[in-house]
Amino acid sequence: MCKKDLDLKVRECGAAYGMDIYSDHELLSLVLGISPERLTGGIQDILDFPAKIQGIGKRKELAVFAVKELARRLMRRESRSIEVIHGPEDAAHFAMPYFRQEQKEHFAILMLNTKNHILGLQDVSIGSLTASIVHPREVFETAILHHSAAIILLHNHPSGDPTPSKEDICVTQRIEKASNVMDIPVLDHIILGGGRYVSMKKDGIL
User: Fold this and answer.
1) What is the pTM of this model?
2) How far apart are the C-alpha atoms of 44 and 36, rounded to whole Å?
3) Cys-Cys link to 99, which of 59, 156, 182, 190 (CB 3.0-4.6 A)?
């Protein structure tokens, strides 16, 4: 679709039918004022590396980053409607907006009080998930500082596949063992990826 056709679509359809009529690429083209045909590749790649697209200079690159940041803030604001964790789905839905745009593995803990009200979510490490990087010391130091009664371990798989790896299971077991000494239970370890999640507790791994 050329820019002239897109402008016509905006004038004739936008007000009448709402923004749902546009594809992701068309929406972004409206923000940037360029033809959607130039926006080649996946929408996530465009949002992460807009300068690779012909016709996107510094100003339009900043506009893309602004859209990405606004979306991130809105998703996080929506997750704040969850205040109490009743099960893994609550924890996953609360955490997803925090990890959705991340290109590296983030390991975090969701901290809870005695009634499973959320006290906060805090990154513990960023990078490849290994026992040397994710140490129980940092996990429980953060939990203690926030007066946590219990914690839920969280991390993302940028690959989009939330299936636990052997290293994921090893790290979880190491932290769970330390939790018995610290008397701060690990209720679950939830892995996020591709809009899906795996609960180690639900799957019988934890």
Assistant:
1) 0.65
2) 15
3) 156
Integer angstrom CA distances of residue 149 from 34, 90, 166: 52, 18, 28
Here the tokens at position 196 are 């899906």
Residue 205 CA to residue 40 CA, distance in Å, equals 41
Tell me how far apart the alpha carbons of residues 41 and 25 are, in angstroms, rounded to a whole number: 10
Domain final position from 48, 77, 106: 77
Mind listing the pLDDT tens digit for each residue in 145-188? Answer: 999 999 999 999 988 899 999 999 999 999 999 999 999 999 99
Would you say 148 and 111 are in contact if contact means Cβ atoms under 8 Å apart?
A: yes
**How many Cα neighbours within 13 Å face the side chain of 185?**
10
Beta strands 186-193; 106-112: pairing state = unpaired
Which CA distances in Å does 129 have to 71, 162, 166, 168, 187?
27, 13, 11, 7, 19
CB 45 within 8 A of CB 37: no
**Could you read off the pLDDT of 94-144 as tens digits, one per residue?**
988 888 767 788 999 999 999 999 999 999 988 765 544 788 999 999 999
Within-domain flag for 204: no
Range of the domain at 72: 3-77
